[in-house]
Amino acid sequence: MRLSRYFVPVLKENPTEAQIVSHRLMLRAGMIKQASAGIYSWLPLGFKMLRKLENIVHEEQVRAGHIPMLMPTLQSADLWRESGRYDGYGEEMLRMKDRHGRDMLFSPTAEEMFTDVFRSHVNSYKDLPLTLYQIQWKFRDEIRPRFGVMRGREFLMKDGYNFDLTKEDALHAYNRHLVSYLRTYERMGLQAIPMRADSGPIGGDYTHEFLVLAETGESEVFYDSKVTDIKLGKRDINYDDVAQCQGVMEEFTSLYARTDETHEAAAFDQVPEDRRRIARGIEVGQIFYFGTQYSEPLGATVVNESGERTPVHMGSHGIGVSRLLGALIEANHDENGIIWPEGVTPFHCGIINLKQGDEEADAACQALYDSLTALGLDPLYDDRNERAGGKFATMDLLGLPWRITVGPRGLKNGVVEVTSRRTGDSEEMTPTQAVEKIAQIYANL
Ligand code: ATP
Ligand code: MG
Asked: Which ligand is the nearest neighbour of the Cα of 142?
């Protein structure tokens, strides 16, 4: 992409409405624009990042054997009356009437809708296990929308629902989700710690929240510092392997890690003192096993091996896709702007032309652009007629992990400069070497 032909309305001034750095940087980098409280327009750069996160979430869900589909955002209240949640849900549910006076709502979550599809089409235990999911906009009329996309009213969520014959099978689904979520966050360069959580209105006995440590996080968390040493890394996971998924689950959840809702001072005291940590975290996902809580009232049953009808065991599992974008920036920035991890960046590298209009510099930039593109990479070429300082400031703000700087002086010696956004270290090399270096970095991911 050429910056002169793209649409990135960067802000020079710090927007005063933003209290935390991710919100400020998303506004400044022209990624989002507030439409009304807690509701955002996703401008091209923000939209591009959202799609990238979504793709990673999809890939990891499909890898775990879960099946993508899509539910409507507007739902009839009748189904929610059947499950008994319509009246209890409270003010967070946005309710409306259609022209015939029928009660409708904007889905804040979708247990009922998925259970309804299940009960209409699945009859036999032979069709289980089944996990369906969607990535879809949700609406919750939050009392205090704030921090930009972190606590919006309209937000993008991946929500998945497992249907299993037995509790045992449903707990395997729970573990599968835990592992696939860990992989998802790690691919985004984020460490999200599974913490024992409170099940709240969804109910159920088993639930973990995934928290990214950040000073601006809304949750207070208590944990054994050793949990931060555990990584999934590149190990092979077979999602059908019950024992392996259970093993990973135990490895990640046996140490003390709780949110304030489940924190127990006496248990925390058992953690060696030098490893006790109290910090803040951003909730980027949550998984639940809730048994037959929805399948019973909604009549989601299957015929088992002995020919009896039995309600299925279910769980639901959510990832806050749009919130993750905020969390990523909270975890990756400096005073000059965003620093995207290589695993999720809107463009693989930037190209800065120090002297637009100089024949040699223009040609060298174009050649770099073409070579990178031919290798399947996606560069952002700042070809605007701007002074170098402005170009550097914009590139730093946008946060691409690598930058190639091209100027007449370097070209005289046959070199360009390759700079890491994270370390600020620069290296001179030939344009060919620069292309090879960038290609190598992304090939190794
Ligand atoms: P919170 O406690 O932050 O209000 P929640 O526990 O009510 O969230 P869940 O029902 O667990 O939310 O939804 C799954 C995920 O969706 C959450 O882990 C979070 O990442 C994301 N999410 C929930 N509410 C919002 C929101 N208002 N804005 C952005 N993301 C949200
Ligand atoms: Mg939650």
From this structure: 1
